[in-house]
Amino acid sequence: MAKSVLLKSSIAKKVAMALSGLFLIMFLSLHFFINMTSVFSADTFNEMSHFMGYNPLVQFIMQPILVAGVVFHFVMGFVLELKNRSARPIGYAKYNGAANASWASRNMIVSGLVVLAFLVLHFYDFWFAEMMYKYVNVSPIEETRYFHELNHKFGSPIRTGLYSVAFLLLSAHLWHGFNSSFQSVGFDNKYAKALHKLGYTFAIVVPFGFIFIALFHHFNQI
Amino acid sequence: MALDSKIPSGPISDKWTNYKDHINLVNPANKRNIDIIVVGTGLAGGSAAATLAELGYNVKTFCFQDSPRRAHSIAAQGGINAAKNYQGDGDSTFRLFYDTIKGGDYRSREANVHRLAEVSTNIIDQCVMQGVPLAREYGGLLDNRSFGGTLVARTFYAKGQTGQQLLLGAYSAMNRQIGRGKIKSHTRHEMLDLVLVDGKARGIIARDLVTGEIERHSAHAVVIASGGYGNVFFLSTYAMGSNATAAWKIHKKGAFFANPCYTQIHPTCIPVSGDHQSKLTLMSESLRNDGRIWVPAKLEDAKAIREGKKKPADLSESERDYYLERRYPSFGNLVPRDVASRAAKERCDAGFGVNKTGEAVYLDFAAAIQRYGKEQAYIKGLDANDAKLIIKLGAAVVANKYGNLFQMYEKIVDEDPYTTPMMIYPAVHYTMGGTWVDYNLQTTIPGCFSIGESNFSDHGANRLGASALMQGLADGYFVLPYTIGDYLAPDIKTGTISTDLPEFVEAEKKVKDQIDKFINNNGTHSVDYFHKKLGKIMWDKVGMARNAKGLTEAIEEIATLRSAFHKDVKVPGTADSFNQELEKAGRVADFLELGELFAKDALHRNESCGGHFREEYQSEEGEAQRDDENFAYVAAWEYKGKPSDAVLHKEPLVFENIKLVTRSYK
Amino acid sequence: MKLTLKIWRQKNAKAEGKIVEYPLDGIEGDMSFLEMLDVLNEGLINKGEEPVSFDHDCREGICGTCSLFINGEAHGPDRGIPTCQLHMRMFKDGDVIFIEPFRAKAFPVIKDLVVDRSSFDRIQHAGGFISVNTSGNPVDANTIPIPKHDADRAFDAATCIGCGACVATCKNSSAMLFVAAKVSQFALLPQGKVEATERVLNMVNQMDAEGFGNCTNTGACEVECPKGISLENIARMNREYLSASLQG
Predict the structure, then answer these.
(1) Is the fold of C3-110 the same as that of C118-247?
(2) Does 1.10.1060.10 match the CATH number of domain C118-247?
(3) Which of B87, B153, C190, C226 has the fewest CB atoms within 10 Å around its CB?
(4) Is residue A155 included in any domain, yes or no?
(5) Is the Cβ of C4 closer than 8 Å to some Cβ of chain A?
(6) What's the rounded Cα separation, in Å, for the pair B146 and B133?
(7) Is this complex scored with an ipTM above 0.95?
(8) What is the pLDDT of residues B377-390, one digit of tens each?
């Protein structure tokens, strides 16, 4: 009985959102760490990228889990948004949401959709190309191509601009999402305050770090 | 008809126990065949409904609010008394009994009050088991504070929201029974008449306030727990919806109405600010634990303050008159409510009032902030000479005790009570009078019971602080559920009462006719217009100080106003829809009758006692003068068609355990 | 001061509603918001129109009857109070004030600004209690000492007045703060722990069945709550619910 309750109830959905979100945060941290190396050393970046690209554990276990995580977080987010909208069939003539909640918290669906749109582009740019390279065209293994590919993508100012905008919204998404996840799983103790600060720091440092990387490579080419 | 109070014989401390041992009981299987209607879901009604349902009866509750949790018991702030003696200050059942009788100015029934004191301790046990978060000390045990009119600390509390917490406790007990199907809760329903079959209360006519539908509900007994009638004054600390309709309807069907003139005027309320005022807000009596009440000692200072030329802080200690401490050194600021209210009125009438209208006195926390601040500095090892620090520490203690009250005051008055003294003035707060009941809490109608504030029983002519919650819960949890069994025992074979009986048809028709009359009246003035006029007559002539001349005028004026109301009231909307003006019209119609009986009772009682102060009967020092020889009785009025024809019945009050003396708090 | 009121009028639950504009003059800063509406209604009655229906009772901030969504906020622009303690000094001459009912599927409109909040009651019926019968001889109240800290937090949760501002203000119409307050009060007290598992499961199930939305932790409820019920309670309920689900 408990299981069915857990899956059906509003709180279960909320916890599922939180856990999938936290999982994506962990992935994001790793991704950030690897990308950051490109600023300091092309070799390290290539080495790490190659490992991620050809390690079977990463490719066939972690990658599908990641994709599933993204899809789940997105689908569940959308389902919840629809349900929440239906919980107020007649809206207010005047609703001053800014009076009591942050823009980020009220617009997770907006920031989420922008991030999702970015992910589509991102998949097209990197992941799709990578899949073509490895599994469709079965091109030879070349351990040093990654840095070059990265640099190439950030050559376009439009792409770099879009990339930056997407990360601004990711920052907003994380600004609320990071701490919200912990609230959802019931985290509330003497470390909660410190964790809140960590959450806000993460929401700034990581997305802006990504933007920095993009701009770094963009301007280094000019 | 002679009143039989059915007080059991024997020594006072054994009466209740012996009585419980010998009354008739209904066996659990038979309780399932018995229906009980409870009207009102405050502390008394809610606790009674829950307990009756636990015992196995089928209970139907009715309240005009949208949820039982919103009954006005919720607004009680300060606390609930119980003779637990947790503080080891010499409290006992007898002392609580004694304080209550004395506080009531020797106008309550000994046996009832003693029972109240006995079960008071059970209430605390029960509430704690229910999860009511009463205030605790650091050791984890329950904390107490002291209230007016007593010399011990026996008041249990939950910050300034004791009534709320206790009501939510009773509400939770109700919820459990609603969840089990033992209580059928009818919210947004108003009882509009009682149905008698063969002289017994067998049901009610109620209006569904959402659809406007008139409904018949039958039962084997009807319990009225509809609270007090203070809104007869229009301005009071009662909720806007608080009304006397249920109590008045049963009065018109044969229940005697006792001591209507006993009204409590609470000394610490926020003063009236203007004509638009709809309601007065109480500041808990607990504030008098720490606040000192004063007015300027000199008339010119009072005038300067009224005109805004001086601030209260400008006056030195010698320029202030702490009149309660001056007049009543032994109880000081903690004299009972009636005494404190009259003293405030006396000072304001003499020209010492401190707000624009001259109807306010100061309640000052500066001394308490200093005292607590020094204490804290000492405990924390800080500098006790740092004036700023002391104020900061002291204000924190005061905030912890009364924070929500201070915040409420600031929101309403727009002044910070931490830095400038509060302004307060007396306001109508509670009615000690109500339906006459016997020891079983049964009215003069068989099968119709009345509990909590709606009955007259326990507070005499003046109720002590923190005793209303005690009485409501005592009646509901511990008294009525047992005494009602004695009445219901012969009813186990009666079976369901049909609502098709001609008595139901007739009662329903009368209710509908009355409603149609209001709707089709096409008058020129709103209900509030008349209610405000009634309130003004009551406050001016039947308020804190009364005299024969004013009362005689009031009786006449109310009767005139009543006929004007019926001729000229305008009720918009329809009968068969949600219609708040229609609700009000019915209630005010009843207040217009009750008000007259109220004045009539006040006029007949040629003495001053508790909340009833007749200017003709006072000592040279202005204290109330009782007349025990002629007025040591309960005045129970029988309805005879109109208030002026009401017939007086007397229940003599016999004091076997407490000697009647002049009440003194000096 | 002079005001323009834009008030939601709706004849009954089934009728369509709309915003109607009312000019109003002679309002003083010392009036409460509800007294301002009294003035409006008195005028409407005298003109032969139907007054605006709105819920109110104690008018001292404790019964939780009054509601009203004022200029886009539950209980209006002031903090820590319900509408009955909102005073007109918060507004200025010439202001336009939107007055709407608390809106949620689980709070259907009865008439004008009056809504049906019985969904809150049904959640309480499902588990908002400790199962003890009234008894003349229970254990003495001081038998179980309760740490002051726990008792105080239980009290803070218990001060909820059930007004529904949390639902009305939440962009998702979620009732989590209300339900969490009750669950927390009992979860913090030893008396309440006995039935904690069943209680949280039943109350949350009922909450979901009533059609409230999902909590997304925006925190708006805490800001608008007239009694300052803390979000900590929601975290506590999430915890309680998870552990109850895993146990059950």
Answers:
(1) no
(2) yes
(3) C190
(4) yes
(5) no
(6) 19
(7) yes
(8) 999 999 988 999 99
